Amino acid sequence: MSDIEEALALSHEPLELRPSRSYGLIELVQLLCLRFQHSNIAADLDQAFLHGSEALTLCPPGNWSRSSRLGAVATTFRIRYLRDGTLSDLDKAVAKYQETMECAPPGDRWRSSCFSHLAASLRMHFERTSVADDLSPAVALSEDAVRMNPRGHPGRASTLQSLIAVYQTRFIKNRTQSDLVAAIDHARELLGLHTFSDTTRYTNLAQLSTLFRLRFSVEGDISDLDIAVRHAEEAVELCPATHLHRRHCLDALANALVTRFEISNGGSDLDQAIAYHKDALGELDDAISNFEASLSLCPNSHQHFRRNSEYIALSTNEDADRSSHVAALALYRLQDYKRYRRLATEWESVVHEIHTLPGFQHFLIPTPYTDLPKAAAYDPVITINTSKNRCDALIVLKEGPPHFVPLPKATREDIQRAAADLTGLAKKVATGGAVYDHEVHAVFRAIRVPVVAPISKYLKTTLKLPEGSRV
After folding, report:
1. pLDDT tens profile 386-415
2. Which of 123, 306, 397, 455 has its CA 20 to 30 A from that of 384?
3. Separation between Cα atoms, residue 89 and residue 80, nearest integer Å
4. Backbone phi and psi for residue 154, each to the nearest 5 degrees, phi listed first
5. Alpha carbon distance 155, 134 (integer Å)
6. Residue 394 pairs with which residues in a beta bridge?
């Protein structure tokens, strides 16, 4: 942090003395954004917006340096989206990055960075809205950015970061294993580019932890979970307490520990995971205290706050007044969160008490896989998992790990309809009614292509089950 502070001090020298005021402003914007990410000082982001707007005004369309100014302004919108979660900020970041690409022709030194940043923003937009049109361009842009920066290029690390993230997102959506393999390979390469003191190493470690946890969900190798825990522990150790991404590092470690606890069903992993989640939530409590301190400097700021509005109306353009209004807006949002957290703590206490009752140790939590094979003691058991993004089948045998079968042609609506029809037939039998073969066949005929066919093929070709076997 001392280097950033020194650079900021130098950047605040009279901008009029510089050959290009817009260049000095954009340097200041980048440094303010960097310090905000490390120290979470709200005023830094507000100043970055003001200086970025002035820098763009000094570089109208057609100016050769406009692309770098646009890119810096777009980044401030994206950082504010990460802090506040306001979708309009992300929309503005995407629009600014797209304009940046138009201003950076082939051969421009900023072009690969434009591709990478736009890809990252489109990926975030997909994760927020599930609009499929965002993901394919994000993958293509990230791949192009990495190709522009071959091994040994100083900009390769930043472009790899974006590519890893889009591969991870596409894997979660489609469960295509090649995406996960590529993401892990690139993440390992990226880790090799960082030294121990690198300020971005902890971000990479947290991301790699998540990737190994995802690979465990596919392959079931417990050693992947151990690796995920180790990487996340190192990320938490390296990440400064005030850094914007520290909560992500804490969450990565907590999630890896919870998954390992669910598999082993014992040990201290769960207690540690709860502690790390509380640490992550505690940072929000610290934020509330800071905002309350800001409000005390401007006690009348609440008069300008509209409770149900996404924006705030400012009575003056002065920076100090604007800062207090932004603090008020954030405070009211976070107070809602505090109430939710108090209720969540009470809920956790009740659930914990229920878990101590005989036979209720798995209440509201997934049954450990070690219990599932009991249901498959005589014949395989097949469960169908559905969501709005994907469907798949899980085949449980009396011995060995589960078998995963993707169902790319199935939809949640198809499976829900079939489940409702089968439930209706079962109720009919339970009440003494008659159910005929053609009624059952009609249900399975409706899902034969998307569901029955791929599962039957897997049972025959991979598991080698004989014809006529029961499931």
Report:
1. 888 889 999 988 888 888 999 999 998 989
2. 123
3. 7
4. -65, -25
5. 24
6. 383, 404
